[in-house]
Amino acid sequence: MKKSIKLCSVALMLAGCGVAGMFSASADTPAPKAGEAAVSAVGKALEKADFLTKDRPNPKAKYYLFLYSASWCGPCCREMPHVVRTYRKIRQTDDVELVLFSCDKTEEAAKAWAKEERMKFPIVKPKKGNGIPGYKPGGSIPRLGIVDGTGKIIITGHPATLLKDWRKFCKPEEGKK
């Protein structure tokens, strides 16, 4: 009993001194500088993702718009020009990023469609989104999911509806603009 109490006391003292923090995964990650945003959990996972294009998402975004779409899908093709136009507005902010998760059967089909539609946003290779917080494959397409930096899904729905009001779902923190 006395031995257990001593061990617990030592552990608590070490934890209070910060020694326990040396062994955690976050000890390797430098703290962001003043005024600099931290890399989110989604951002970290996206840094390791397999992309079709050279475009990469902002790992420090606070919100991510995950678009599930494919070149063989008629409604997806009709919606894509609107998505491309909306992305021009989205990319003007550092807080929000759009990422396309290709539902195409081949990388070649996805690349050809991206080139044809002049997509300038990051495109994850087909079936390569696993491990990204908030990534939810399956279901109907086109589909848009808005997630925060932790991967918490805020809302999902049709891109035509959600892209009209994306700012409403991607609110800046209180006191910041």
TrEMBL record:
Residues 1-27 form the signal peptide. Keywords: Signal. One of its GO terms (molecular function) is oxidoreductase activity. Residues 25-175 form the Thioredoxin domain. InterPro entries: AhpC/TSA, Thioredoxin-like_sf, Thioredoxin_domain, Thioredoxin_ResA/DsbE_sf. PANTHER family: PROTEIN DIPZ, THIOL:DISULFIDE INTERCHANGE PROTEIN DSBE. This is Thiol-disulfide oxidoreductase ResA. It comes from Akkermansia muciniphila.
